C-alpha cells in the first residue's frame, strides 16, 4: 500500500469554486477564471508516494506547490479530490480526527524555522510531543535523541538566538523527527539558508533518510535541490503537474519546452548515472585487462574520472561482475552537454577517444 496518494486534487479560491472546477475539468485555464474573480491554485493533481520515498514537488513562485502541500495534511480543504494517507481518506475525517493525525502521524518542517524564542533548544525540539501530552521525562529523552541525530548534541540548553540559521533549521527538523511521524512535509525548508549551509542540510537530510527511511514530501523552487534529493519529482506550472518522474527521466526526457528550459542549467554529472548513459558494447568486454569498472549507480561525475584513466570504453558491471554495458567517452561527453569529439581507433579495434 502507498503511504500517500493525491487523487485529482483541485483548490480554487474565490466565487463559485465548484463551478470553476467543472470549467477546469473541461479544459479551461486559470487565466480565464481570473476575470470572474476566481483563482485556481491547484488543478487536477494526482500522484502516489511510496513508504520511505523522498517525493519532491518543485516549481516557480505561484505554481501551486505550497497550496498542494497544505492539502496533504488537511490545513487546506480541497475544492475537489481526495488525499489518502495509509489508505485512509483524510478529506473525509472530522476536524478532531484530522488534528489527531496531524499531531501523531504527519510532521511539518517550515521554511522559517518557527522556533519559540523563549524556549530552549530541547524544549523546542520536544514541543510536538508536549502537544501530544507525552510526559516530560519521555518527551525530553526523545527530543534529545532527535537533536543528536541532527548533529546538535550539547546544544540542548541553548536558546534559538544563539544558533546559526542552519542550526536553527536542524532544531526544526529534530522537532519533526521527535514525534516519530510516518510522513514529513517540508515546505522550502532550506531556501532561507546560505548556499553552503543549504548543501550541508541536504547532506544531513540524505544521511538521516538512509538511517530512518521516512516518507518525505519536499517542496522547493530549486531544481538542483530537487534533483539531488528526490526519488521522484513532480514539476508544477500554473497549478498543474506538467511532469512526474525520476530526476533522470526529467533530464533525459523533458515533457515539454517549459521543463526543457527549466533543466538546461542543471549539473547533469551530479544527477545522471552510468546506467542512464551506457550502451551495448560492440565487442565483448575483456575480463583480463584489469581496468577500472563502475556500477550502474555510479554518478557521471565519478564516471568521468574513471574514463580519463581507462584507454577504452568504461565497463558497467552489476554486483556479480556481469557486464551490463559500456560507456564510450564520446557518449559521456555528449550527455554532459559538450560537443562530441571524433573517435580514435586503438590497436585492438575498440572505439576510444584520445586522452590528449
Automatic annotation (TrEMBL):
<dbReference type="InterPro" id="IPR017871">
    <property type="entry name" value="ABC_transporter-like_CS"/>
</dbReference>
<dbReference type="InterPro" id="IPR003593">
    <property type="entry name" value="AAA+_ATPase"/>
</dbReference>
<keyword id="KW-0813">Transport</keyword>
<dbReference type="InterPro" id="IPR051921">
    <property type="entry name" value="ABC_osmolyte_uptake_ATP-bind"/>
</dbReference>
<protein>
    <submittedName>
        <fullName>Glycine betaine/L-proline ABC transporter ATP-binding protein</fullName>
    </submittedName>
</protein>
<dbReference type="InterPro" id="IPR005892">
    <property type="entry name" value="Gly-betaine_transp_ATP-bd"/>
</dbReference>
<feature type="domain" description="ABC transporter">
    <location>
        <begin position="4"/>
        <end position="263"/>
    </location>
</feature>
<dbReference type="InterPro" id="IPR027417">
    <property type="entry name" value="P-loop_NTPase"/>
</dbReference>
<keyword id="KW-0067">ATP-binding</keyword>
<comment type="similarity">
    <text>Belongs to the ABC transporter superfamily.</text>
</comment>
<dbReference type="InterPro" id="IPR003439">
    <property type="entry name" value="ABC_transporter-like_ATP-bd"/>
</dbReference>
<keyword id="KW-0547">Nucleotide-binding</keyword>
<dbReference type="GO" id="GO:0005524">
    <property type="term" value="F:ATP binding"/>
</dbReference>
<dbReference type="Pfam" id="PF00005">
    <property type="entry name" value="ABC_tran"/>
</dbReference>
Amino acid at each position: 500500500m502507498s503511504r500517500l496518494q493525491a487523487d485529482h486534487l483541485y483548490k480554487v479560491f474565490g466565487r463559485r469554486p465548484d463551478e470553476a472546477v467543472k470549467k477546469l475539468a473541461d479544459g479551461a485555464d486559470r487565466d480565464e477564471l481570473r476575470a470572474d474573480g476566481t483563482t485556481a491554485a491547484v488543478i487536477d493533481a494526482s500522484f502516489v508516494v511510496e513508504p520511505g520515498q523522498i517525493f519532491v514537488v518543485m516549481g516557480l513562485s505561484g505554481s501551486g506547490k505550497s497550496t498542494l502541500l497544505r492539502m496533504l495534511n488537511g490545513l487546506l480543504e480541497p475544492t475537489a479530490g481526495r488525499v489518502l494517507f495509509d489508505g485512509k481518506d483524510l478529506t473525509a475525517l472530522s476536524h478532531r480526527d484530522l488534528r489527531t493525525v496531524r499531531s501523531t502521524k504527519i510532521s511539518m518542517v517550515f521554511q522559517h524555522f518557527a522556533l519559540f524564542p523563549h524556549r530552549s533548544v530541547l524544549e523546542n525540539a520536544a514541543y510536538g510531543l508536549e502537544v501530544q501530552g507525552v510526559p516530560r521525562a519521555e518527551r525530553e529523552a526523545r527530543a534529545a535523541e532527535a537533536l543528536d541525530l541532527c548533529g546538535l548534541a550539547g546544544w540542548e540548553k541553548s536558546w534559538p538566538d544563539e544558533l546559526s540559521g542552519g542550526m536553527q533549521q536542524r532544531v526544526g527538523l529534530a522537532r519533526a523527527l521527535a514525534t516519530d511521524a510516518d510522513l514529513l512535509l517540508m515546505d522550502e525548508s532550506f531556501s532561507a539558508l546560505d548556499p553552503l549551509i543549504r548543501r550541508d542540510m541536504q547532506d544531513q537530510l540524505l544521511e538521516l533518510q538512509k538511517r530512518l527511511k521516512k516518507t518525505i514530501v519536499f517542496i522547493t523552487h530549486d531544481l538542483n535541490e530537487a534533483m539531488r534529493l528526490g526519488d521522484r519529482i513532480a514539476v508544477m506550472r500554473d497549478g498543474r503537474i506538467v511532469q512526474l518522474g525520476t530526476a533522470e527521466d526529467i533530464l533525459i526526457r523533458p515533457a515539454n519546452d517549459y521543463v526543457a528550459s527549466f533543466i538546461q542549467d542543471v549539473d547533469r554529472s551530479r544527477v545522471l548515472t552510468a546506467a542512464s548513459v551506457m550502451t551495448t558494447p560492440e565487442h565483448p568486454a575483456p575480463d583480463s585487462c584489469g581496468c577500472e569498472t563502475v556500477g550502474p549507480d555510479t554518478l557521471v561525475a565519478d564516471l568521468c574520472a574513471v574514463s580519463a584513466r581507462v584507454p577504452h570504453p568504461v565497463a558497467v558491471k552489476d554486483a556479480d561482475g556481469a557486464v551490463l554495458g559500456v560507456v564510450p567517452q564520446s557518449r559521456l561527453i555528449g550527455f554532459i552537454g559538450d560537443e562530441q569529439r571524433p573517435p580514435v581507433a586503438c590497436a585492438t579495434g575498440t572505439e576510444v577517444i584520445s586522452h590528449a
